[in-house]
Amino acid sequence: MKRKIIIVVSTVLILAAGVLVRKQLAADRKPAPRTPATTVAVAFVQQVKNGPVSTSVGATGSLMAKNRFEVFAEVQGIMLNDGGAFKAGNSFSAGQQLIGLRSDDFKAGLVAQRSAFHSRLAGVLPDFKMDFPGSHDRWAKYVLAFDPHKFIGELPVPADDREKLFVTGRGIFTEYFNLKNAELTLGKYSIVAPFSGVVTKSMVTPGTVVRPGQKLGEFIDPGVFEIEAAVTGSLAATLRTGQKVTVNLSQGAARQLTGEVVRINKSVDSGTQTVSVFVRVSGEGLDEGRFAEVLIPGADLENAFEINRSALMEEDRVYTVRDSLLVPVVVEPLFFKEKTVVVRGLTDNEQVLLRPVPGAYPGMKVAATTE
User: Fold this and answer.
1) What is the mean pLDDT of residues 248-255?
2) What is the pTM of this model?
3) Whole-angstrom Cα distance, residue 148 to residue 109?
4) Coil, strand, or helix at residue 137?
5) Looking only at Cα atoms, what is the longest distance across the chain?
6) Lower CB density within 10 Å: C or N end of the chain?
7) Given pLDDT bands bounded at 50, 70 and 90, which one contains residue 239?
8) Spatial distance between the Cα atoms of 242 and 24, rounded to a whole number of angstroms
């Protein structure tokens, strides 16, 4: 009996000792409490350096050829075959024929009209010999040199009023000017290039009947263009003709050219309160209708600094960094550009944010850095 009691007591002690050891081992494996890590946001800053800041106003417009020739027909006729010359993209030199219309019938009628005039002059030569013997030789020389197949020459000048009345009474002046008018009309059957340029639009093909007043195409000089830009009336008042401006083009790689203000409209658009300013620009590779941006210089703003527009909060506040803390500063916005704004109110050598810091608040700790 005593032996059984000893065995039971020993077993209980061993179990108790095992529980104590197990608790101790579990306590030894328990991780030490962690200290929460502090995260510091990175703030990209720039150093303030106040001074004069130049301003410019951007206005957009499209390139329009300065020299433009809209081709219209003034007479009726069938367009002659030109081998496809009058097509968009083809170039012509000044004086070269753009379009030719068939004029055989009109030419034949003009020759007949000249021949009739020639006969009338020959018929009055005896009267000249009788009444104006001093002028007979001049008129006879004109009649003998007359060729119905050539353009008519200038008539001899009457020697006095009596001779002038005689020529007028015979209807010679009337027929002469009718012939001159017909010769001018004959010239309209051939449309020539008024300057060297390129066809931008063709609206007729060989073999078609062309009628008076019909538009046949457009022809431009591709070397000189103008841009019509709308600017505010107050800015237009500071501009002058001859002033140089910057023109930005986007065609593949961006291009920048120098333009010149050539005209300023004195009429203000009642809807937009803007004024049209015309800028001339020239250069290789310019295209009709391409959009361009005109940068018109404005006045310099003294004691100012230019920052990103995204850094401006509530229209008149920015964050600066002092002793690694964000400090708001009230500023005066002076001029807004596309991506930046010119402000006044910052102190030289102060660090101002380049862009907003997520979750920013006054007194927030940051790590300032420059790009």
Assistant:
1) 68
2) 0.66
3) 11
4) helix
5) 189
6) N
7) confident
8) 95
The SS3 assignment for 156 reads: coil
The Cβ-side half-sphere exposure at 48, using a 13 Å CA radius, reads 24
pLDDT at residue 142, as a whole number: 95
pLDDT of residue 107: 96
Output the pLDDT for position 212.
96
Other C-beta atoms lying within 10 Å of the C-beta of residue 279: 26
In tens, the pLDDT along 29-72 reads 555 555 455 678 898 999 999 999 887 777 888 899 999 999 99
What whole-number distance in Å separates Cα of residue 296 and Cα of residue 362?
A: 39
DSSP 311: G
Helices (H) and strands (E) in the chain, counts: 6, 23
Look at residues 325, 254, 262, 261 and name the one whose alpha carbon lies nearest to residue 291: 254
Phi first, then psi, for residue 71 (nearest 5°) are -85, 115
Distance CA 201, CA 37 (A): 72
Domains and CATH numbers, the chain: 44-55+301-369 (2.40.420), 57-64+222-297 (2.40.30.170), 104-187 (no CATH)
Instruction: Say if CB 103 and CB 77 are below 8 A apart.
Output: yes
Mapping DSSP to helix (H, G, I), strand (E, B) and coil, where does residue 346 land? coil
DSSP 157: P
Tokens of 169: 């009474």
Would you say 282 and 262 are in contact if contact means Cβ atoms under 8 Å apart?
Answer: no
Q: How far apart are CA 17 and CA 257, in angstroms?
A: 94
Q: How many CA atoms lie within 13 A of 147 on its CB side?
A: 4
| pLDDT > 70 fraction of the chain, expressed in percent and rounded | 88
pLDDT of 41:
87
Alpha helices in the chain (DSSP H): 2-29, 104-131, 133-145, 161-169, 172-187, 233-236
**Within its chain, how far is the Cα of 156 from the centroid?**
55
* Residue type at position 139: W
